[in-house]
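debug: dumping io for the single-chain case to check the tokenizer round-trip. Nothing else runs in this session.
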Amino acid sequence: MRGKQVKEICEYAGKVTDDMNEGMVIVQAGGNGLLENGREATVNAIMKVVERKRKKNVRVAVTSLLRRPACNEEYERLRKEVNRDLHEKILAKKAESIRKREVGSSFLDKDDLIQAGCFLEDGVHLSQEGETKLSQRFICWIRATHLLMEGRMD
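debug: decoded output
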């Protein structure tokens, strides 16, 4: 869904997974529209998907908003604030889930993974190297989550 804003991605994720009663979903929202929509609207749109899926016994991973070397300082500041808010909210949901022994959610931080050499020349989209690194992170989460769902880990 390249070029779509966070709200559109979240609405789409909610619709395509409405019939899921169990399983895994990774929500990878980009930064399109971040400056226009702001911190609160962005966080709320993403958390709405998390809540919607948790009620249906679906494990959800939310990835951090991606840094963009081509963007300005205001974007970067707001991106970090949104990621911090998401991390805190999802961690609180995870703690609540553990207490209630329910399906949990995860936050996948990409900042340590995706470095400057992982972008195309436009400074916005990931290169093949960036896509590969990101895919490997997703695979690790999927494997660990599958083991949890199978009851092999506590």
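debug: round-trip ok. The helical segments are 6-16, 34-54, 73-100, 128-149.
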